[in-house]
Amino acid sequence: MEKRVLGKTGLLVTRLAFGGMELGPVSESTAVRLLNCALDEGINYIDTSPEYANSEYFIGKAISHRRDEFILATKCCDNMRGNGPLYTFDRRTVLENVEESLRLLKTDHIDILQIHGVLPEFLEGGEQGEVMETLRELKKSGKILHIGLTIRNSNPADYAYPALHGYRNLLTFASWEDIEMIQVVYGGMTRLSENVIQKAHDDYGTGIVARGLLKQYDATYEARWKASGLQELLEDGETRTDFLIRYVLTHPAITAGVCGTRGTEHLVQNIRAAERGPLSKEIYEEAKRRLNYAGVVAGDSNIWKK
User: Fold this and answer.
1) For 263-296, how does the pLDDT look when each residue is reduced to its tens digit (9 = 90+)?
2) Is the CB of residue 16 less than 8 Å from the CB of residue 71?
3) Cα separation, 97 vs 75, whole angstroms
4) Which helix (H) or strand (E) holds 227?
5) Is 52 a catalytic residue?
6) For the whole model, what pTM was predicted?
């Protein structure tokens, strides 16, 4: 699989990252198979979080002996104390998360530590506040090597769900000197941040990782897919999932896309899609043109035949 440099981290990562969220509900034996399959099939970027149930434990159990084969990204500001808000943006929580993550993951360092589900207003003092200062200290100590964050997507009750927070805040975070990479909601069917992703990359050199590539965030998903006529652009043997993975990885400013799964067959299919490489320039531009129009004509599936 192709690898690219992840922005200011300088890390060379595969275009497809293994997302550890889906490990939470699976059995240990399934997790072991999935994680070893990911590495065996060429993925070198594993993304997880303390919040994802048993995910960090399974990663430590299954592949810590293969630690030199993968780049490990986890998260902080996850409140794991069993009371209070889900996220707590303070020094104590960052330090607790890191120590527990290192223990569970059976490693002496985390390649990328990401502030989890954050907005600028959540960080008192901003770039010079205690969370960022704590991360700088951890980086100096060698417990973490690089600093990043994931922008909040919230839940369907939030007016900004799923991508508006990313659209509004990506450039603010990218302008912070110590933020080396940012994870943001983006996909062929969730394109709001498409242009600001490019600007963050071009203006600040920030590494951009996309999540939610395939997620059906709202009830119009199927109608928009049908109205767009994207099915007509698929290559022989290509599925909708394949196409949408490749669509994201064709964006010139996106280094990697995070995909999670609970089955090795599905995992291998996603890897094969990424290995097909970017869409051609002609197909990519046509897909964007159709998607731009599909939101307006979602009730007319025959629009591209007129």
Assistant:
1) 999 999 999 999 999 999 999 999 999 999 876 4
2) no
3) 8
4) helix 221-228
5) yes
6) 0.94
Q: b or e along 154-180 (b: 16 or more beta carbons within 10 Å of the residue's beta carbon)? A: eeeeeebbbbbbbbbbbbebbebeebb
The residue among 21 and 303 whose pLDDT is bigger is 21
Q: Which of 52, 167, 186, 247 is catalytic?
A: 52
Whether residue 7 contacts residue 37, with contact meaning beta carbons closer than 8 Å, is answered with no
Give pLDDT tens digits for 39-61: 999 999 999 999 999 999 999 99
The closest of 178, 166, 195, 215 to 292, measured between CA atoms, is 195
What is the reported pLDDT for 259? 94
**Token output for 213:** 């590539």
- In angstroms, the CA 55 to CA 21 distance is 7
Distance CA(71)–CA(53), nearest Å, equals 20
pLDDT of residue 85: 85
Quote the tokens at residue 141.
């100590």
Domain ranges for the chain = 3-300
Q: What whole-number distance in Å separates Cα of residue 288 and Cα of residue 8?
A: 28
Nearest alpha carbon to residue 235 among 247, 248, 253: 247
CATH 3.20.20.100 is right for the domain spanning 3-300 = yes
DSSP letter, residue 18: E
Strand partners, 259: 18
Task: Give the whole-number percent of the chain exceeding pLDDT 90.
Answer: 90
Q: Which two tokens stand for residue 302?
A: 């025959």
